[in-house]
User: What shape does this take?
Amino acid sequence: MTMEKKLVYFFGNGKADGTGAMKDMLGGKGAGLAEMTNAGVPVPPGFTITTEACNLFYELGKKVPEGLDAEMNEYLAKMEQAVGNGYRFGDVNKPLLVSVRSGSKFSMPGMMDTVLNLGLNDRTIEGLIRLSRNERFAWDAYRRFIQMFGNVVLGIEKEEFEHLISEAKKKKKVKLDLDLNAQDLKTLVEKFKAKVKQVKKRDFPQDPIEQLTMSRDAVFNSWNNPRAITYRRLNDIPANLGTAVNVQAMVYGNMGDTSATGVGFTRDPSTGAKVFYGEYLTNAQGEDVVAGTRTPHPIADLEKEMPAVYRQLREITDKLEKHYRDVQDFEFTVQENTLYMLQTRTGKRTAHAAVKIAVDMVKEGLISKEEAVLRVEPASLDQLLHPIIDPKAKITVVAKGLPASPGAASGMAVFSADEAVKQAKKHPVILCRPETTPDDIHGMDAAKGILTARGGMTSHAAVVARGMGKPCVAGCESIRVDVKAKKFSVDKTTVKEGDWVTIDGGTGRVILGKVPTKDPVVSGDFGTLMQWADEVRTLKVRANADVPRDAKMARQFGAEGIGLCRTEHMFFESERLPIVQQMILADSTEAREKALAKLLPMQRSDFKGLFETMDGLPVTIRLLDPPLHEFLPRREDLMVEIAVMQAKKAAKATISKKEKLLHRVEELHEFNPMLGHRGCRLGIVYPEITRMQTRAIIEAACDLAKKGKKVVPEIMVPLVGAVKELKNQKDLIKATAEEVMKKKGVRIEYLVGTMIELPRACVTADEIAKEAEFFSFGTNDLTQTTFGFSRDDAGKFINQYIETTILEKDPFQTLDQDGVGVLVKMGVEKGRKTRPDLKVGICGEHGGDPASVEFCYKAGLDYVSCSPFRLPIARLAAAQVRLKEKGVGGSGTK
Amino acid sequence: MTMEKKLVYFFGNGKADGTGAMKDMLGGKGAGLAEMTNAGVPVPPGFTITTEACNLFYELGKKVPEGLDAEMNEYLAKMEQAVGNGYRFGDVNKPLLVSVRSGSKFSMPGMMDTVLNLGLNDRTIEGLIRLSRNERFAWDAYRRFIQMFGNVVLGIEKEEFEHLISEAKKKKKVKLDLDLNAQDLKTLVEKFKAKVKQVKKRDFPQDPIEQLTMSRDAVFNSWNNPRAITYRRLNDIPANLGTAVNVQAMVYGNMGDTSATGVGFTRDPSTGAKVFYGEYLTNAQGEDVVAGTRTPHPIADLEKEMPAVYRQLREITDKLEKHYRDVQDFEFTVQENTLYMLQTRTGKRTAHAAVKIAVDMVKEGLISKEEAVLRVEPASLDQLLHPIIDPKAKITVVAKGLPASPGAASGMAVFSADEAVKQAKKHPVILCRPETTPDDIHGMDAAKGILTARGGMTSHAAVVARGMGKPCVAGCESIRVDVKAKKFSVDKTTVKEGDWVTIDGGTGRVILGKVPTKDPVVSGDFGTLMQWADEVRTLKVRANADVPRDAKMARQFGAEGIGLCRTEHMFFESERLPIVQQMILADSTEAREKALAKLLPMQRSDFKGLFETMDGLPVTIRLLDPPLHEFLPRREDLMVEIAVMQAKKAAKATISKKEKLLHRVEELHEFNPMLGHRGCRLGIVYPEITRMQTRAIIEAACDLAKKGKKVVPEIMVPLVGAVKELKNQKDLIKATAEEVMKKKGVRIEYLVGTMIELPRACVTADEIAKEAEFFSFGTNDLTQTTFGFSRDDAGKFINQYIETTILEKDPFQTLDQDGVGVLVKMGVEKGRKTRPDLKVGICGEHGGDPASVEFCYKAGLDYVSCSPFRLPIARLAAAQVRLKEKGVGGSGTK
Assistant: This one.
């Protein structure tokens, strides 16, 4: 294969081959470096090997395309020229050192591997010592290089090197790395090289070119390491993008006290406040800030320490924010009082910050309202709606760390990622770690919240937790985490594995025990953004709400109606259950009707409450759906009870009473209740139930109508598979409603429609639409029947399915567009063919999932209905899909 | 509305308005009368009111179309002319009496109501006495007329009249109706008229025209009586056909010993033998023969009694059979030595007879082979395959009746139709009745067999039982059935309700107790017909068979391969179950593999046996399908056991052992096992199971291939909903097979395919076909998921669904073409789009249902697979649909 495409892009000396728009090709970091270079920002020169090269690497069976090595050499020469002053890669006198970093289209913090100080060897180290006039720095750089290269490229465990450092410190009886002098580090370098030889049976490579090509290939390989795969899965990043490799001249933040390194944001990524935000460390390399091993200083301190550098940094980052029209997350290094920008990218932020920043930037005239709407990831709104610690709760705060990711969470303390995954199946857990690393991702995913003793607001724990929308308290230095003993202690308090602990990621508080939480109050900015979203969206949004309390919440969150009121939830209330059981145990229609008569006034008042709360908005009421045995004691419990009574020779009459109950429970027992006697099948076999529920609905509506109130009941018949089922129930409903309205002397408008939640309903939707005045897709059940997955049982295999990518996503969370979605579309098309003005909605859990909302919009649905808390997500997602369709630009913050 | 269409058709005097082809319009009886009249057969003249008039009657809200009465009068006049001799309807001197009979397109024996002797009143009776010179006959005719009219037209219970007859006989101390003389009958007529007045508050109508119009309307109304509706449902007769009304001059078989009435068949409807077959009664009306109240004489006796009439009857019926080219079922009456044919129609017959007759008629040159194939109703073949009494069984024959419908059946004796329905839910029942009436239909449907004390081979019980393919012993006069006491006795033996009794409908034997039965041996004619069917059919037929024994049977019944071998049936065998349980209870993959290693040789030998039996025909083997808990003790049983042990303070070790088992059972417990961890989901989570089964299959195949035998294994992955599931399993199968073949040093051809049994599989069949080398539709599960019906639980509502016609048919018996069928077609189309040569079959229960076989052929399937016993049905159905498509005529015997 001959080289045809340009696989390497240069940047340096104020001019780059690429541009900021070339993220696909250069990755986020490479595009940022090109853009910054072109914008005159001081960036160390270098070149980017494209993502295409990475993909070719995989296509060729992990070999780089022919010619790439030669091309790299050419660009190395260009880089030497840009650096100037006679610096050359591998030169003994003036050695040019480089960094090798990954950089894919989407930021994957900490996921990919990096090698710094590349180009050092036993000969160039002498040049570095001469040039830097800092022997300790030089040996430290060489030590770091061998360590990183050994780990990242050669695959030697980090601990192997760390262990040698600890030994050296122990031997010298000092605590800090900084206490090791040049000689110590020189000795360490020898030990490191011996370690490499011992483990890998080869010498540490001395040829800088070999070092470079090996590192490049290691970055390519790191694209498919397990951490990267997990992160991509969690963040919806396609696996075929590949990563670019950035080779850049090294600058040093660790060349003494006039050097520093730091990271920052142009606005506060946690609150969104327009403040310059960041952290730095003097005399350190970048990894020291991110790794959380030393707690950095707030960036404001830099103004005092290096005022000129600080001013220049503010100017540059302001320019970058205006240039990119979004918050920038940047990395910088000061080498002996000279500022270099190493990276800029769109800053990750909390949902809270995203909303504030989007609204602020509209006010500042930086972006349009529509762009603002597109700037917030709908799913992230979940974070805003996280509970907070009940302000009235009596709490014992034992420590305070950084408020790294908002929300409050209680759980049992666990001290390793594996334990978190294990225990999270049984109860909520808080993952407590000294610091987190990418290896802990699965544990963070399983935990309700994360607590770390070290690291700042941009530490791994903080960044990842924010991305996950999970509460995190980071850098809580007063606690001592003992991973081995499975406990942490603070002063005289000890929290052991299994103890309850609560964290408040909004304030950084660590609280003992389980603490009551409170629903969040949303900000004015949030309301503003939602209003802008509502202005553009055409898809209606309703809520699933069963009682007036939920309905009230739903309206607060912007519901334009109730899409699903599950009447059975009213049946389960404690004072009603005995009557419901009486109804089920009745041995004649008359006895059943007697019990139903007692339920009638209760249901009527339920509906009245709902109608009043919704005040003229439509309310879809589903008739009784679950199989009747759900209201009775469990069969196996009765069996055990009776057997024990018999074994203990209890009174015959007592036993016989229980036996009678068991007999009825046995009659109602089902092998597959999901597919059993439920839904409209109940109302068909027991028409008196449908009659009672219809009476309750229509009577409530009539009573309110008489008072001049507008009521829009939509009566929904569940689990229809054949049009005649609906016809049967509709006839019953119409007749009953007619009777009630006649008696009440008032007429109300109401609709009779059906859930479409069985494949057969989709297939015969044209027939069903002859009777149905509306459709509501019950995508939970439709997913169950289309896949043949019981939601209650699928846990036994579905995780494995997702891990092995047999399924991309849990179809109960995100609507399966290839399977279930095809049936939904078929249902909509067939239904509208019969009845062009058919009102169609969805009321499964999917109504609050952004991707599913997008699907629903495209499938032509009139509305989605979801739980009240997810309404903002649905509203925003509905607005975004509309804007995308209209071609309004602006990318979200992936 | 004005009359536009001809609604009345005349027949008589050797010429009819209609023809035999006009069954739709004239009904079977009317068309037969027209045809016979045209053919010069002596038929009493009359006219037929069309089925269209019946439908108009219903359209007009149970009113006849305007002008129909006038048209009828016109035709009455024509009829009077044809009868001649001055007979006139309503005439006092020469009264013409008529019969009014229903007659729809398809024969519905005993379902519809008939009125005879219409035209009699207090004045015309005198004429009849004079003309007949038989006062007793005349009063008996009048008595019968009032009784039938009173019952059929006025809706008075039969018992009301019967009671008066019984009283009269009691008063006179006689036993038989014949013992009542003219005076007695005259008195009875008065009492009957008084009864009518008493019950209906009106006089018995004296105006013959009013009698006629009321009767006509009653026949129209009888089309929708409950018995007729039930019969139509059981026999697949559409409800919108309507019935014709035949008004025909009366002739009398009860005018003394030179008169007779009878019914017959041109061949034996039970055996198919070419013998003149029938029964008659001297001095009787037709209803006496059919009703079973008197046991008639075999028709051979007529030759002695009335030789000339007998000869004429033979000539006419021979002519009719040749004319219609099929067995004729005829009714005749001899009035004072003159023969009249009252009806002829295609004779209903047993499956056995149908086969023999079809084959004989081809030999006789009467019909073609293809017509012969179309002459046998596929579903009826079931009868041929009914078990017979094991000839070696020691049996106690207590009585012998008529062999009215073939097959042997054991069951508990019940004495009413309602009881039959009730008890049949728990155990098999034999319905024992003095005789049956159309009111007993539901009980006959529920019973395994029917036993009657009275009635002949053409009695209601016999005709209906044959239609149902159920064993029936009729006219078993030696038994006394006491319905009230719920028992029958014969000599000194009494059989009470709940006692086991066995009937042999092939020989007429009634046997005490439960008797072992034996599989039937099919006749040479059957083989001939099947061969003809095979010559025309293109749809292949396979069998569902799990063990060599079934496979042998399958080949005998013509299987062209095994379409479904359910490997789990091999797991349930008693010596294997403990090993299977060991495998399930294993707490590591290694332990599981150890147990599987023990199963391997067993499975291998299973497959070897199957392959050897099938001898080169394809064998589709489904990998393990059911959820694993099916192989363990029931959860609730363990719970009870443990609770009882605890209550009784059993040893802790014993309890803890059980608890451990329960723990695993709980882990495997599922709320909806149908939708749970089963099918390919097992093989994905436990690849070692798939590996073992593949090894067993391929090793068996290799071993046989080495011996030069041809083996065609098709490995089928169950319950695939996403192509990646299949890919996962296919990769595993291919790798394992490759390994086995390498080791065995022999290569065999095999396919890997999948069941299509989930809606999602149909929807994504194009994707699945990328991996699948064949599809087999599992329509059982597909029906469950498409409808959301659990087959095990649907019993709670499905009967009501069918009774109220929410569903036309049980979708588990006949494939639901509107819903499930649409998905099947989608699956076939999408699958073949990806892989045009994709082999597609069906292996649900539907493969043996004629309507479903027809559907499968039309949907383009390559084969159907069903249980061995249903293979002949599938073969015949497949041949018929092919012939129908080719436009070969000939109607089945509905």
The CA atoms of residues 374 and 880 of chain A lie 6 Å apart. DSSP finds 35 helices and 32 strands in chain A. The two ends of chain A are 36 Å apart (CA to CA).
